[in-house]
Amino acid sequence: MNKTALITGASSGIGKALAGEFAKDGYNLVLAARGVAQMQALADDLQRRHKITATVIGADLETSDGAQKLHADIKARGITINALANNAGYGTFGEFKDSALAPALAMMQLNMNTVVALTRLFLPDLIATRGKVLNTASTAAFQPGPYMAVYYATKAFVLSFSEAIAAELAPHGVSVTALCPGPTASGFQDKADMHASALVKGKKLPSSEAVAAKGYRALNRGQRVYIPGCMNWVMAQSVRFTPRGVVTALVAQLSRPTAA
């Protein structure tokens, strides 16, 4: 019997690319996001190419009960989850004093609360099948992030949470991997409205497909934290030996808005 992977944020970017990696490996898929039309086109393509089944579920995971509704829908269909990819998430760019509160709270709901809720809700399946969890964090997880303060903080949460439960779940045969990519060509910048940021402006970014392929291999190795790209890895490690004030000032300089 084929294993089944649940992938959130599967309508585009890294989530869409992860769906392809799981499908190539023979996993059946449950794709969850708000973009049902995009996911259905992806599902049709992957089913045709890899002879797997792909179930599309429209889910608003920014809401307080979105994770519970998704879990209930999957269980009502009689589906057991063997792998969970908590990939849905987004950021916003700009000074915190100028930001609206509602988008920040919705971001926290999606980037943190939904990750916790889905992981906990599907743990019985994952423990029973000695399954796998892939949580999409970011290199943002390793330091504070001026101009994206809330986003960076949510990814620090995802990294800490992932490493902690990885230790707890290892005796149960469940692996947990925190995927920590740097800026990626994924549509994230459009959602975050951050094309003016010095962090991405004028830079050639790795593709979602490349990041997903490397992250999927790390998941299969059981690697607890994986940072794609040598420079990303060096920068993440250097934070450990640099005064926090210096790190924050450097991130502010790297991320600052630039002139058009």
Describe how the helices and strands are arranged.
Elements: E1 4-8, H1 13-24, E2 28-33, H2 36-50, E3 54-58, H3 66-76, E4 83-86, H4 101-129, E5 132-136, H5 149-169, E6 175-179, H6 188-192, H7 208-221, E7 225-226, H8 230-238, H9 244-255
Parallel strand pairs: 1-2, 1-4, 2-3, 4-5, 5-6, 6-7
Helix pairs in contact: 1-2, 1-7, 3-4, 4-5
In short:
This protein has about 260 residues and is of the alpha/beta class. It has 9 helices and 7 strands; from the N terminus they run βαβαβαβαβαβααβαα. It has a 7-stranded parallel β-sheet, with helices on both faces.
Question: Would you give an account of this structure?
Answer:
The chain is an alpha/beta fold and 260 residues long. Helix content is 49%, strand content 12%. The chain is built from 9 helices and 7 strands, in the order E-H-E-H-E-H-E-H-E-H-E-H-H-E-H-H. The chain has helices spanning 13-24, 36-50, 66-76, 101-129, 149-169, 188-192, 208-221, 230-238, 244-255; strands at residues 4-8, 28-33, 54-58, 83-86, 132-136, 175-179, 225-226. Strands 3-2-1-4-5-6-7 form a 7-stranded parallel β-sheet, sandwiched between helices. Helix 1 packs parallel to helix 2, helix 1 (13-24) crosses helix 7 and helix 3 packs parallel to helix 4. The chain starts with a strand and ends in a 5-residue tail after the last helix. 45% of the residues are buried.
